Amino acid sequence: MFSGLRHKKSFLLIRNLIAVEVIAYGLFMLVALSADWAEAYSRFGVSDYLSFTVLEFTSLAMVQIAIVVFVVTRSFREDRDIKEIIRSGEDERLEFKTSLRWDVRRNEISKELERSAMKTVAAFLNSDGGNLVIGVDDEQRAVGLAADINSLNKKSHDGFENHFNNLFISMLGPEFRQYVRLSFHTLDDKSVSLVQVDRAHRPAYLKTEKGEDFFIRTGNATTALKVSQVASYISAQWQ
């Protein structure tokens, strides 16, 4: 599991490096061809000691080194950021879920756990947004996603994200997916998922077997509003 995440992060890191390098080199060549810089450089006295070609390639090398440092540093900072998020503890904009679908106590898939995760996402959509961290327990300890992923047909992070998307679309609707970003991180050598949710521009209802429910965040809890409360809440928040 952890090895798979490292391979994926390494692939993304290399991909980002290549993409940025290509863009940087293209810009460098565009600037280089935009004027006769060699002639302009020859006017300075330093040209007697340092050729323009050496200066040109040295500048390109320095830019490339700076790009590598930036991309690699940013990659490591992402894992530090997840630790900072978790350290703050559950509140109105943060909730932990040990699992997306696997009930460890009963050792089986739980539809209720899936609904609980989507319920939290719905509440964030209807409030001020927030972060749902899957694979972390209430004591802020990393549990990981191994049990969840092993319960899927496609046993990978892509399989986990696909299942999350299917749950989201079936329970909340595809129109709200634009407000949600899912990413994977490592915490204490275990893989966890960070679901970042923005406030939606209109009310989001959670579909159930009996109809639809409306949830909001109240403190560090997810609360279902009564039918008589929903209209006034929507009026105050979106109208």
TrEMBL record:
Residue intervals of the Schlafen AlbA-2 domain: 90-225
Question: What keywords are annotated for this sequence in UniProt?
Answer: Membrane, Transmembrane, Transmembrane helix
Which residues are listed as membrane-spanning?
12-37, 49-73
Checking InterPro entries in the record gives:
Schlafen_AlbA_2_dom (IPR007421), Schlafen_AlbA_2_dom_sf (IPR038461)
Name of this chain's protein: Schlafen AlbA-2 domain-containing protein
The domain of life is Bacteria
Pfam families for the chain: SLFN_AlbA_2 (PF04326)
